[in-house]
Write a structure and sequence with these properties.
Elements (H helix, E strand, L loop, with lengths): L1 E6 L5 E7 L2 E7 L10 H7 L2 H12 L7 E2 L4 E3 L9 E5 L3 H11 L11 E5 L21 E2 L2 E7 L15 E8 L2 E2 H6 L4 H4 L7 E7 L10 E6 L2 E7 L7 H11 L7 E3 L21 E6 L3 E6 L3
Parallel strand pairs: 6-15
Antiparallel strand pairs: 1-2, 1-5, 1-12, 2-3, 3-4, 6-7, 8-11, 9-10, 9-15, 10-12, 13-14, 13-16, 16-17
Length: 298
């Protein structure tokens, strides 16, 4: 099942639901008798049985009651995450190689333990919306396609073998990065956290659509040119390991978003680097979820 946040004709945010087997359509959640303040509230409140009931209702819903996806403005599925995103750095071996080549000291290459960092998100960017161009502040704008994991219920001290029980679903994240800011500071936080630097979407696909942990292809293109392509089974630190390790020392609240790391092919990995410029169009795509498309604006 696919869950969307979209902007209605009234200008307000609404929740929608769709199915992979009924592509190109979404139905307002309210149509099936449910009402939630936002996606965070849905994740918090909707039970597993209710999600099954919703999915069954959509399977038989009339097509004339649906909204065509190409005629609505999709927002990020969680437009305002409750906390910073939790992110994995250097979580594909080939990306570690290109990172070290670009700036070995800044990218902490060669460590055995996972590299975690936070990414400030005041409001996530939806598919179709622009990535801001910060003239005079950023001179090396980069893209990173990543599988986003959405935690479905509060968890603490979760064993790796039970981690899948706490996953609500998955989304596509573009971990947009200002490389000059990222490498100039001892922490990556500033260079990853400028407003508009967290495109997310186009939807959340519920966890029941995938085996756990999911094995799917992740890819990115810039202006139609393939830049990244890999598979989530090549993660150096797996999703069960990540959830188990993080929950050992902190409570992961329902709605927590974990960005699991990007493969090789980021702009900084080329010689010379291929950083984004105004007018470029970045597409980040994960099989089974969809494509997240964002132009670079001014």
């Amino acid at each position: 099942m696919k869950l969307y946040t979209y902007q209605g004709q009234d200008g307000a945010e609404h929740l929608g639901v769709g199915l992979s087997e009924r592509p190109g359509l979404l139905w307002p959640v309210e149509q099936f008798g449910w009402s939630f303040a936002d996606m965070n509230n849905l994740i918090d409140q909707m039970t597993a049985a209710e999600r099954v009931a919703l999915q069954q209702a959509v399977q038989t819903a009339a097509e004339e009651d649906a909204l065509p996806l190409d005629r609505v403005r999709l927002r990020a599925p969680i437009p305002r995450p409750r906390q910073d995103l939790l992110c994995l750095g250097i979580n594909y071996a080939a990306h570690a190689v290109e990172s070290a080549r670009f700036h070995e000291d800044a990218f902490l290459v060669g460590r055995q333990k996972a590299t975690y960092f936070g990414k400030r998100v005041s409001e996530a960017t939806g598919t179709g919306d622009p990535i801001p161009w910060y003239e005079g502040l950023v001179d090396s704008l980069d893209y990173e396609v990543e599988l986003g994991v959405i935690i479905g219920r509060d968890c603490k001290n979760v064993p790796a073998e039970q981690a899948g029980d706490y996953v609500f679903g998955y989304t596509v994240i573009n971990d947009v990065s200002a490389r000059n800011l990222q490498t100039a500071h001892n922490q990556w936080y500033f260079g990853k956290s400028l407003d508009g630097y967290t495109p997310m979407g186009p939807c959340i696909v519920t966890a029941d659509e995938f085996a756990f942990p999911p094995v799917c292809t992740v890819r990115s293109t810039v202006n139609g040119e393939k830049r990244q392509e890999s598979s989530t089974d090549l993660l150096l630190h797996s999703i069960p390991e990540i959830i188990a390790e993080l929950s050992r020392g902190m409570t992961l609240r329902a709605g927590t978003v974990i960005a699991t790391g990007t493969p090789a092919g980021a702009g900084m990995g080329f010689t010379p680097p291929k950083f984004l410029q105004p007018g470029d169009v970045v597409v980040c795509e994960i099989d089974g979820i969809g494509a997240l498309t964002n132009p670079v604006g001014r």
